[in-house]
Specification:
The complex is a heterotetramer of chains A (about 550), B (about 300), C (about 120) and D (about 270).
Chain A lengths: L1 E4 L2 E4 L4 E5 L2 E4 L2 E3 L8 E4 L3 E5 L1 E6 L4 H9 L1 H6 L2 E2 L8 E2 L6 H10 L2 E9 L4 H9 L5 E7 L4 H8 L3 H15 L3 E5 L4 H5 L19 H14 L6 E4 L9 H10 L5 E3 L7 E2 L7 E2 L1 H9 L4 E4 L6 E6 L6 H4 L12 H4 L4 E6 L4 H16 L6 E2 L13 H9 L1 H9 L3 H4 L13 H16 L15 E5 L4 H6 L3 E4 L2 E5 L2 E2 L7 E6 L5 H12 L17 E6 L1
Parallel strand pairs in A: 1-6, 2-7, 8-11, 11-12, 12-13, 12-26, 13-14, 14-15, 15-18, 18-21, 26-27
Antiparallel strand pairs in A: 1-4, 2-3, 4-5, 7-22, 9-10, 16-17, 19-20, 22-23, 23-24, 24-25
Helix pairs in contact in A: 5-6, 6-8, 9-10, 10-13
Chain B lengths: L5 E5 L3 H4 L3 H6 L15 E6 L11 E4 L5 H12 L6 H5 L5 H13 L2 E6 L1 H4 L5 H14 L4 E6 L6 H12 L5 E2 L6 E2 L6 H7 L4 E5 L3 H4 L2 H9 L2 E5 L4 H5 L2 E4 L10 E3 L5 E3 L11 H13 L16
Parallel strand pairs in B: 1-2, 1-4, 2-3, 4-5, 8-9, 9-10
Antiparallel strand pairs in B: 6-7, 11-12
Helix pairs in contact in B: 3-5, 3-7, 9-11
Chain C lengths: L2 E7 L11 E6 L2 E6 L3 H9 L9 E3 L2 E3 L1 H14 L3 E5 L5 H14 L2 E4 L4
Parallel strand pairs in C: 6-7
Antiparallel strand pairs in C: 1-2, 2-3, 4-5
The chains are: A alpha/beta (about 550), B alpha/beta (about 300), C alpha+beta (about 120), D mainly beta (about 270).
């Protein structure tokens, strides 16, 4: 039993905004009160107490990321090292941290739950293996569905009910938590560039299936299955100038459904080429603010190194074959074909400057913090361990303006960031880093400090330098155990995995089996991820 | 293999070494987008000699031994319409016309795949030969969809790559002496280490270097305390100080293996072994080591966070 | 003798890792394979569950696994630069354990890939 | 001067990046003796392996066969290291200034990613001389490496600036993916200049070329006089007189660029 006393508590989900009060913990959960002997006390005077952070969209495990790890040994040499000790596994931080380092780095930041946002079903077993080696944090996975041909074929035939059964079966086979739609319809759409009509044009190889149909059908299916997290959508035309029209159109298709828009920054561009790229964050925010069915995460970029991992639609299952993990292939010119491209965002680059501004503009212009969450689409926009830099930019308008002034003069005409004077409060930071994403994920025991919640708590020294404050929490508790103290990992605990079990008709297997045997090189019976591979599974029945 | 209509096997003999590769994965199956199956695909075999795989190929290109890098580099230039020296091309055993034809076919493919075997990656040039294939494939993507994939020889060598990458950040040859992973092929790769005599103990898992490595490496294994875990008493076991018999993967030991395209598959062992699994024995050794005092100096224990 | 059948078994002989074998065993031997190629069939039939080899050997002399584990731990701990090599014919679970052990003994871990 | 005399060959490689003028310049005798180094996984003291004479100097002399001692002179910016014997891997890696002299042979990665200074090897060197470490885009960015004997694979891989001169022959891939700078070779095995983008490789003996290099012309570039003069001081002579012969100039590698140059000396008698 534990009592955190004297700290200013930010628990926006329970209407607590910086009041000095005690937080009590027993058996890994928050409780109203603890009594008697054996109650340990943490004196949090002069500190602020947050619910543990929740990352709604990140890439920390699985085939693509693991491929990227091998591609950048030069980054690994420069990265933070985790030295082996009797308690800790060795690891490397940096742009694509190893699994152990990922757990330590997230916990070291005060984050206790992460959602791996792109899991191909065929290699879901791999993702779970890595998540099992990702310590401390709790995890969930979104399963890639919008380019699954079994599903698209059914949509082509107009068999929506069966498509729903297949989706449900696939989620359970992958031991997933949510459904992710990446670039629905795929590669063909990429080629059509910024044409706003693309969402209504048939996907290559189909006559009736359009990206629009995929989006609407999946949103409806996720709704019907009553999954805790709505459809998690990565819109078409990611990163392309002028893609704002595609994004707006996607959002219109989603009217009437709940949906989560991933890494919105990459989808809010105007202009008709790289030379005329401009921010359309204001347009996007205006629509978004008026549509409470939507949530989003920022997908902000920060200047510096990153690795962009492009999910390439229908070719998804072949991406893993773009391989040759020998160090010889680490030459940059070799990497573009692989969909994994090490990239440096530069402040002096006009395009990068606009991208940088768009992420922040969205966070500032979307007025309800419960609907926009802090992410960098790690590792695409920046590494997750740089979130404190973004928090600093959000909380300090003078600091932000100073940074804006350093951008190329040309960029200033294409952004509105310099005009925005909103400053986030600590309470709002608690919302965008924890309470909001927990709610969007439907994780009722995360993101708050009310009785019954998991005792995941981040305690920070109050410090006007917000970056420093959020970079080095004084304490981090996971499930009631102190895992981080003064910025160092003190104790390593295992994390759990949240998975959903949507109801489906068992007979769907009889429909799938022959198709599978025809088109897949893996045995049908070996396809579903076995339950025992999911460490600490927390299963939610639904539908 | 639902899509590939153009397949190149380079430096491999799948008919003998990966017997079902053609029929199950690449050539014969009627793919979703290649409904004609074998008839809808073109297969090119590049090798230094005629092997049984030639029978399955539409085109066989016989390259002189050790000239693969030259050929691939020439292809890279031709893909970009750059000039090459005809006489020096001919030294590779292939003519400029043959290579130009190949480039034309590659560019016109709807979806191309290059599978490269150990005949490429283990011959003179080694990793640079693999790098050359990757570079070529990357450049072909400016024209059409092209991918490539190494034909891995041993059972779960792909798994070893995958596991090492997520645990250490590097695919092989990882040095943990200073408490964190370091990578430098040539410095930390086994044959180099053993030939130089750098190690003072060795644990051999699921391998028989005593039968496959150069003699100086074997000699060093015999000099130092070597420990072998294997389902059989191998040649390495005979020169080792310690041998422990373990259950055979997939026969009597359960678990996971990775296919060469990095798809993980579960094992369904049919027999019950009288021996423990490798995993169990490794863990027991680990427990014993853990019981001893840590060798890392205390000054190492500070963990740099974030 | 007991006859057992396993379907969708995975063959780990080559890198293809086909997972559609049907295996038939009698007692401690595999007697029949379906869908396996020549190499796979030979590989399956080449392994048995018989107690053909001593549990462990120390300096060539049969010993218990217990003693051999202890000897292995002593050697690896005492060494300044131990090597963990191979990993291609063991499961991913064993590979994970091997990397953890390599860390614990402060060594180099390497696979066939480096050859 | 500080003299370090090896007591006995370490059984496993000794990592000794502290053997550098920058570290030693300020240290007293007892501090030098206690400098940490790593014998495989174990942290040890310098005097476990070396007899130490002298203190606080930028001039180091190492006596004995330190062929298993790695990272000598890592990142050094000034001063001098003399090795009377063989030197281990990564000698002068990341070096920025100063001089390293080795009387015997050096192992791989001599001057890896160095940016300044001078390294002279009296015997042979291993592979990856002046090269980029795995994954890095750029190898050597300045300075000079002179090798009396031969060298191994991938000499000058991805180098951008500086000079590497090898009197003897080198193995495959000299100047691999080179971006600039100059490599002078007494001959090479295969694939010289593979995938080079810019820079100059000069061979004093005939070498096989990739099909992606095209013959350009015969000439004696004027910059060679300068180089020849510079290297002559170090005991390296490069033929450059019109009367003696000419260089055959090839450009490539057409697989990536045509701005790289390979110059192959052809003495007058045979031309």
């Amino acid at each position: 039993m534990l009592r955190i006393t004297g700290g200013r508590v930010y628990d926006p989900a329970n209407g607590i905004h910086g009041e000095v009060k005690d937080v009590c913990i027993s058996d890994g959960r928050i409780v109203a009160e603890v009594e008697g002997t054996g109650v340990r006390t943490i004196d949090a005077s002069g500190m602020v107490v947050f619910p543990g952070g929740v990352d709604v969209h990140t890439h920390v495990a699985g085939a693509a990321l693991n491929f990227a790890r091998a591609m950048t040994p030069e980054n690994q040499r420069e990265a933070v090292k985790f030295i082996h000790s009797p308690e800790l596994r060795a690891g490397i931080g940096g742009i694509t941290p190893t699994t152990f380092a990922t757990g330590y780095l997230y916990a070291g930041l005060g984050y206790t739950t992460v959602n791996e946002a792109a899991v191909p079903i065929l290699s879901a077993r791999h993702t779970h293996e890595e998540l099992r080696d990702t310590p401390i944090v709790d995890k969930s996975c979104c399963v890639l569905m919008a380019n699954n041909e079994l599903v698209l074929d059914l949509l082509e035939e107009g068999e929506t009910e069966r498509a729903k059964q297949v989706v449900a079966w696939l989620i359970w086979a992958a031991k997933g938590y949510g459904v992710k739609a990446v670039n629905p319809g795929g590669v063909a759409a990429w080629k059509w560039g910024k044409d706003a009509k693309i969402l209504s044009e048939p996907v290559e190889g189909y006559s009736k299936v359009t990206p629009a149909k995929i989006i609407a059908s999946l949103a409806a299916i996720v709704n019907d299955l009553q999954l805790p997290h709505p459809l998690h959508i990565h819109c078409n035309n990611l990163g392309a100038p002028g893609n704002i029209s595609t994004t707006l159109e996607t959002m219109k298709l989603l009217e009437g459904y709940r949906a989560h828009m991933a890494h919105l920054q990459f989808h809010a561009y105007g202009g008709d080429g790289w030379n005329s790229l401009r921010s359309e964050a204001a347009t996007l925010a205006e629509y978004f603010n008026a549509h409470p069915n939507l949530t989003a995460d920022a997908g902000a970029i920060l200047f510096g190194n990153s690795v962009t991992i492009t999910a390439d639609g229908p070719w998804q299952h072949l991406l893993y074959q773009l391989t040759g993990h020998k160090w010889g292939n680490l030459d940059v010119e070799n990497e573009t074909g692989c969909g994994i491209v090490p990239y440096v965002y530069k402040g002096s680059n006009l395009v990068n400057a606009v991208q940088w501004a768009v992420g922040l503009e969205l966070l500032l212009l979307i007025n309800d913090p419960w609907r926009i969450f802090l992410t960098t689409d790690h590792p695409n926009g920046a590494c997750f361990w740089r979130y404190p830099e973004i928090i600093h930019l959000l909380m300090d308008v003078d600091f932000r303006r100073e940074r804006v002034r350093k951008l190329p003069a040309k960029a200033l005409k294409r952004i509105v960031l310099g005009d925005l004077d909103r400053e986030y409060t600590l309470s709002e930071i608690a919302v965008i880093t924890s309470a909001g994403p927990a709610r969007a994920l439907g994780l009722s025991r995360k993101g708050h400090l009310g009785p019954g919640a998991d005792a995941d708590v981040a305690i920070y020294n109050e410090n006007p330098d917000r970056e420093l404050m959020f970079r080095y929490p004084r304490y981090v508790l996971k499930g009631g155990q102190v895992v981080v103290e003064e910025g160092a990992i003190r104790k390593v605990v295992d994390g759990r995995e949240f998975i959903v079990h949507p109801s489906f008709d068992e007979n769907i297997e009889e429909y799938l089996r022959p198709l599978f045997e025809q088109y897949y090189t893996m045995s049908f019976d070996n396809y579903p991820v076995e339950m025992h591979r999911v460490e600490g599974a927390d299963i939610r029945e639904c539908g | 293999m639902n899509r590939a209509d153009f397949i190149i096997y380079w430096g491999g003999n799948p008919a003998d070494c990966h017997p079902r590769h053609f029929t199950k994965y690449t050539l014969t199956p009627k793919g979703k987008h290649v409904p004609m199956g074998r008839k809808g695909r073109t297969m090119v075999l590049v090798d230094v000699r005629e092997t049984p795989s030639v029978r399955a190929a539409d085109i066989f290109l016989q390259v002189r031994p050790g000239k693969d890098f030259e050929v691939i580099t020439t292809l890279r230039a031709l893909v970009k319409n750059q000039p090459v020296d005809q006489a020096r091309v001919a030294e590779t055993g292939l003519t400029l016309a043959q290579l130009q034809d190949l480039v034309g076919r590659m560019k016109n493919a709807r979806f191309g795949v290059i599978f490269f075997g150990m005949g490429l990656s283990m011959t003179r040039g080694k990793h640079m030969n693999s790098a050359a294939v990757l570079a070529l494939v990357a450049e072909l993507n400016a024209f059409t969809k092209f991918v490539c994939m190494p034909m891995r020889g041993h059972g779960n060598v792909t798994g070893a790559d995958v596991v090492m990458r997520w645990t250490t950040g590097f695919p092989f040859g990882v040095n943990l002496c200073r408490g964190y992973p370091r990578f430098n092929p040539g410095e930390f790769s086994t044959v180099d280490l053993l030939v130089r005599g750098d190690n003072d103990a060795a644990l051999i898992l699921g391998a028989d270097p005593g039968a496959t490595m150069p003699q100086p490496a074997i000699d060093h294994l015999a000099r130092i305390p070597t420990i072998v875990l294997d389902p059989k008493v191998t040649r390495t076991s005979r020169l080792a100080r310690v041998h422990i018999t373990t259950a055979a993967m997939g026969i009597s030991a359960p678990g996971t293996v990775y296919r060469m395209d990095e798809i993980p598959l579960p094992l369904r062992p049919i027999l019950q072994s009288p021996y423990p699994t490798d995993e169990v024995v490794i863990r027991r050794i680990h427990e014993q080591v853990k019981a001893k005092p840590a060798w890392l100096p205390a000054s190492f224990k500070k963990v740099p966070c974030a | 003798m007991t006859h057992t059948v396993v379907k969708n078994a995975t063959c780990t002989f080559c890198g293809c890792v086909c997972d559609d074998m049907e295996l038939h065993a009698e007692g401690d031997r595999i007697v029949k394979t379906k869908l396996a190629c020549g190499l796979g069939e030979a590989w399956f039939k080449n392994h048995t569950a018989e107690h053909l080899y001593p549990d462990a050997l120390i300096d060539g002399q049969p010993s218990s696994v217990e003693e051999a584990v202890q000897a292995a731990a002593d050697y690896l701990y005492e060494a300044d630069m131990p090597l963990v090599y191979g990993l291609s014919n063991i499961t991913c679970e064993a590979q994970r354990a091997a990397v953890a052990l390599a860390e614990r003994i402060g060594g180099v871990v390497d696979s066939h890939t480096s050859l | 001067m500080i003299t370090l005399t090896l007591k006995e060959q370490p059984r496993v490689p000794l990592e000794a990046e502290a053997i550098s003028p920058d570290v030693m310049a300020k240290l007293r005798h007892d501090e030098i003796r206690a400098v940490p180094m790593f014998l495989g996984k174990r942290q040890r003291r310098l005097d476990d392996f070396f007899e130490v004479e002298g203190e606080a100097s930028e001039d180091l002399e190492i006596r004995g066969d330190v062929g298993k001692v790695k990272w000598i002179g890592r990142g050094m910016t000034r001063g001098r290291i003399r090795v009377a014997g063989n030197a281990g891997m990564h000698l002068g890696a990341y070096m920025k200034g100063g001089t390293i002299d080795v009387s015997g042979n050096a192992a791989d990665w001599v001057g890896g990613e160095m940016s300044g200074g001078l390294i002279r090897i009296g015997g042979n060197a291993g592979g990856q001389v002046g090269a980029a470490y795995r994954g890095s885009l750029t190898g050597m960015q300045g300075g000079t490496i002179l090798i009396e004997g031969s060298a191994g694979l991938e000499v000058g891989m991805r180098m951008k600036r500086g000079i590497i001169a090898v009197k003897g022959s080198v193995r495959d891939f000299p100047g691999l993916q080179m971006k600039g700078g100059t490599i002078i070779l007494g001959g090479a095995e295969l694939r010289t200049g593979a995938w080079m983008i810019r820079g100059t490789i000069l061979s004093l003996r005939p070498i096989p070329l990739l099909p992606t290099f095209a013959y350009n012309c015969n000439y004696n570039p004027s910059f060679l006089r300068l180089y020849a003069k510079h290297l002559q001081i170090q005991g390296f002579s490069i033929p450059h007189e019109e009367g003696d012969g000419a260089y055959l100039l090839y450009s490539g590698d057409a697989a990536v660029s045509q701005k790289g140059e390979i110059l192959i000396w052809q003495p007058r008698a045979s031309s």
